[in-house]
Amino acid sequence: MKTFTLTAALLTATTLAGTAQADKLDDIISSGTLRCAVVLDFPPMGMRDDSNTPIGFDVDYCNDLAAALGVEAEIVETPFPERIPALMSGRVDVGVASTSDTLERAKTVGFSVPYFAFEMAVTSNDEAGITSFEDMKGHTVGAVAGTYEAIALQAQVEAWGEGSFRPYQTQADVFLALSQGQLDATVSTSTVAQANVQSGNFDGISVVGKAPFDTDYVALFAKRDEYGLLNYLNLFVNQQVRTGRYAELYETWVGGELPDLTVGGVYR
Amino acid sequence: MFDYTFQWKQAMAKLPQMLDGAVVTMEVAVLSMVIGILLAVVLTLLRLSGSRPLAAIATTWVEIARNTPALFQIYMAHFGVASFGIHFSPFVSLLIGITFNNAGYLAENFRGALKAIPETQTRAGRSLGMSQLQAFRYIILPQMLRIAFLPMTNQMVWAILMTSLGVTVGMNTDLYGVTQDLNALTFRTFELFAIAAVIFYVITKIITLGARLLAARLFRY
Amino acid sequence: MFDTALTANDLIFLAKGAGMTILVTIISVAIGTVLGILFGVVRVQLGAALAAPLTFVLDIFRSIPLLIQLVLANAFAGMVLKLQMSGLTVACMVLSLYTAAYCAEIVRGGIDAVPATTRRAARSLGMSWGQDMRYIVMPLATRVALPSWIGLALGVMKDSALVYVVQVTELLKSTQILITRLQEPMFLLLLCGAFYFIISLPLARFGGYLEKRWSND
């Protein structure tokens, strides 16, 4: 009897597997559109040009991915806290949104291997007299809600026991508040800090140093049960590096020393 | 189709934090209501003052409060005025935004309520030797507040709902802010916001019931 | 007064955002009003006790922040039901029900404002329920309800600013996008406020006119 049930179950399972719907990768290819979640207030990774068209490293990366899949790319703008909810609610297919591959997030979404790596920098309002990470003690500081650096900075402020931490919903609001003097300093990725300071849009802010946080590896993400797609994303990231496209995009949008995407001493 | 796994346990563990947030939400709502009523009375007086510039100021306030989104008003109170070097903390910005909105709507309600009070009453008060202000204070105001009591209750409920907009100006201690913060960390979006929704519902019910009891006590003849 | 880097292109971008605001408002108010009239009439016909479940459900839409309604609907449709819905669809669905919840109250108030004796008189003249509703209740209730309905429509227009949360780029979101690029918050916010004012003023004026005209007779 037991054998019978088992066989029946196995049979059903195989039949179901046989008729199961196409996976996400198939869906994307047959729909002809790849919808990427991209953060567009995060220069040089994602921003808008003079005609308000999305541009940036992440935008190009999404275009490359779409080209590899042979489909059209559609950029869906998502603020930082909305990236993963947008994926989970089926609004996008993949996230190309400079997303740190934290273990907490991996409970919800599946990550590819890292496709970029950030250093964290402290940017301050010139009037606050902050010249290093430690100087932020006792000041009003802020970052983008829910990001890697926000979590680390909030923990640091609590450890210092003075000053206050303020999360804003977008990177743009953080720099706006910083230049207005509502925040004394912020910790952000060094690339966005440099890009914003150099843009000349913000008066009276400067990058004053590095934040002593670990290198922030960021990865592409998709639904965590879409192994076919995740597998494709891993290979895609590998190919981008192998073919030199990664270096090319880095030179176009960021410039300088190319970040190493591997971690020594461990397998991924 | 229904293969989503609800993680209520993980979300319910955050309930104490969310209830703390609910207290802050109530603080903002009550403060904005008290100040809003006072400002609305002032706006009503300005409109009655007979002075054109003063009435124009009051009318402009009311029109802006009623014809632009509350989110816009709160965003303005934080990022807008900061262009002039005026800085408010997220809490204060949110409070200013909602109070501005409350005062505008309430002033309009008061205007409607005033129509229901015969002008002859003021004149009667004046002929008893009251000053214009005294007549307003002792004859008109109590009746006005009574007639406008139901709209005021509605505005109080809106004030509670509006606190959810504080998140756009960096507020993370109110109920919505706390929930959004937790969501950004754990991504149990549905569970967390469902709990927040229930808390909001309970608060608004308590407010409306409380207002009804208060009305029954205050306005019996 | 303002030295701005704003281009004609950006103004078109803002106008597109305003267009989205108007689109969402028109769809939601249209569907919400039809549903609201239906719910309102049903509530009056059934009486308080029988309509209690409907009253309860509609009340929820008026007791929870719209932002949470949008987030929940979006999460429920996408995560739990796994439906592929555009942000615009979710936004319009939630706003329609939100409108319907308020509209049902207005309709109920309007119908209740028609004196029972008037309706009884109509019925005793041999009018059917439908005729009574059509020729007696509707004209009278509309007078009571229309100013509130205009207030509601304006309210929905302003509340549509919150649909940014389901990735719909309406007027306020467009403004924030431009602020990100141009860093002129005060100027752009004033411009945005002016846009809202222009959209709502005609309707608001019409409401004020009706209120004045109908309140004196």
From TrEMBL, chain A:
Residues 1-22 form the signal peptide. Coiled coil: none annotated. SMART domains: PBPb. Keywords: Signal. CDD domains: PBP2_Atu4678_like (cd13696). InterPro entries: Solute-binding_3/MltF_N. Residues 33-257 form the Solute-binding protein family 3/N-terminal domain. This is Amino acid ABC transporter substrate-binding protein. It comes from Alloyangia mangrovi.
UniProtKB/TrEMBL annotation, chain B:
It is a multi-pass membrane protein. It is found in: Cell inner membrane; Cell membrane. One of its GO terms (molecular function) is L-cystine transmembrane transporter activity. GO terms for cellular component: ATP-binding cassette (ABC) transporter complex. Residues 22-211 form the ABC transmembrane type-1 domain. InterPro entries: AA_ABC_transptr_permease_3TM, ArtM/GltK/GlnP/TcyL/YhdX-like, MetI-like, MetI-like_sf. It comes from the Bacteria. Pfam families: BPD_transp_1. PROSITE patterns: ABC_TM1. Keywords: Amino-acid transport, Cell membrane, Membrane, Transmembrane, Transmembrane helix, Transport. Its main location: membrane. The chain crosses the membrane at residues 22-46, 147-172, 192-215. Belongs to the binding-protein-dependent transport system permease family. HisMQ subfamily. This is ABC transporter permease. The lineage of its organism: Bacteria, Pseudomonadati, Pseudomonadota, Alphaproteobacteria, Rhodobacterales.
UniProtKB/TrEMBL annotation, chain C:
Gene3D superfamilies: MetI-like (1.10.3720.10). Its main location: membrane. One of its GO terms (molecular function) is L-cystine transmembrane transporter activity. It is a multi-pass membrane protein. Coiled coil: none annotated. Residues 18-207 form the ABC transmembrane type-1 domain. Keywords: Amino-acid transport, Cell membrane, Membrane, Transmembrane, Transmembrane helix, Transport. InterPro entries: AA_ABC_transptr_permease_3TM (IPR010065), ArtM/GltK/GlnP/TcyL/YhdX-like (IPR043429), MetI-like (IPR000515), MetI-like_sf (IPR035906). It is found in: Cell inner membrane; Cell membrane. This is Amino acid ABC transporter. It comes from Alloyangia mangrovi.
